[in-house]
Every structure is written in structure tokens, then in C-alpha cells.
Amino acid sequence: MKEVQYNGLTFEPYIEKERIAARVKELADQIKKDCEGKVPLFICVLNGAFPFAADLFRAVDMDAEITFIRLKSYEGMSSTGVVKEVIGLSENIKDRTVIIVEDIVDTGKTIHRLIEDLKKKEPAELKIATLLFKPEALVCDVKPDYVGFEIPKKFVIGFGLDLDGMARNLEDVYQLKENA
Ligand code: IMP
Ligand code: MG
């Protein structure tokens, strides 16, 4: 695998698709166990979570539903801290087991804001599944229930994660190469 470039920045391979697939399967098995006897509703946070959500949802071989919402809090490589809801939720989540599916939890502001909103709709339980988690960057009181990979506070792209809209279609996760 080779390095890729976006916006004049160089990124190196970091988490290969085979490792992602294996981890997704493990998370799916755990979710299936935890949700026995329930029909969980997966809420995929667009745009970044769509490849992870598609794989995770198919790997969970049980009765389940999926829906999509869209929020945005990021421009370029630094969080603006401003969370805007772009596409709302139409499903009734009252008394449902809800699993929010995110690409990455960085500062945690996005997921925190979303949780506060969803709690008002009185779900039976609210869980967070995220492909990537940067514990060192966390500034909010949130704890993801299902984490694909804990990673250091470095910018990553691929497998849904973007740099100004690009690179989401890379099959693997790439990390910004320092001093490149
Ligand atoms: P948070 O609100 O700071 O947790 O940021 C969450 C959102 O920021 C994610 O859903 C991503 O869209 C974006 N984000 C955070 N870190 C990265 C990264 O390393 N690469 C690409 N997007 C990121
Ligand atoms: Mg996102």
C-alpha cells in the first residue's frame, strides 16, 4: 500500500481494510449478544459513518433497522465546535434500543449534542458505536460503547472519513504523515 495525497498533504496507510473487516465482525457479534430479544435501530450519522454503518449493519445477523441523520461540526482539519443538524430523524425512537453509528469520536462534541437531542425522545437505551475513537481529544462526558479502534490525536482519512469532502472512498484508513 502506498501513500496518498490530498490538498498537498501526504497520508500513509494506517488501518488496512482486512483489520477493519475483522473488527467490524467482532463489534457486530458483541452488539448481537447485547441486543438479544430486541430489534435495535441503528442511526447512521452521515456522511462519514456510511461505510462503517453499512458493514456493521450487515454483519449483525439479527432483526434490526437502520436510519440516517446528518450533522456537521468540522471544517478542514480542526473542529469548529458548531454542530448543525442538516437532516433530522423521522422515526419514533421512544422505548427503542438505539445504536448511534459514528465514523469517529474526536472532541466528542458532535456525539454529545446528538445524545442530548435523542434522549429527549425517550429511547429505552442509547448506545454509541464508532469506528475510531481519539480518547486524548475528548472534551465531553461521553463514552462510546462499541469502539473499532482507539487512535492517537492525529488526523485520519478514508473508509468514510474525509478531508474537505475528499478521500471518503479510500478502502483503508490513512494517517497524516508528519513533517512530510
Ligand atoms: P467531534 O465533534 O470533535 O467528536 O468530531 C466528530 C466529527 O469530526 C466526526 O464525525 C468527523 O466528521 C470529524 N473528524 C474528527 N476527527 C477527524 C479526523 O481525524 N479525520 C476526519 N474527520 C474527523
Ligand atoms: Mg462524522
The secondary-structure class comes to alpha/beta
Spatial strand arrangement across the major sheet: 5-4-3-6-7-8
Rg over CA atoms: 16 Å
CATH topology title: Rossmann fold
- Largest beta-sheet details: 6 strands, mixed
Describe this protein's structure.
The protein has a single domain, classed as Rossmann fold, CATH 3.40.50.2020. 22% of the residues lie in helices and 37% in strands. It is built from three helices and ten strands. The strands form two sheets. Strands 5-4-3-6-7-8 form a six-stranded mixed beta sheet, sandwiched between helices. A four-stranded antiparallel beta sheet has the order 1-2-10-9. The longest helix has 18 residues. It is globular. The mean pLDDT is 92.
What labels describe this entry?
10 strands, binds magnesium ion, binds inosinic acid
Gist?
The chain is 22% helix and 37% strand. With 180 residues, it is an alpha/beta fold. The chain has a single domain, classed as Rossmann fold (3-Layer(aba) Sandwich), CATH 3.40.50.2020.
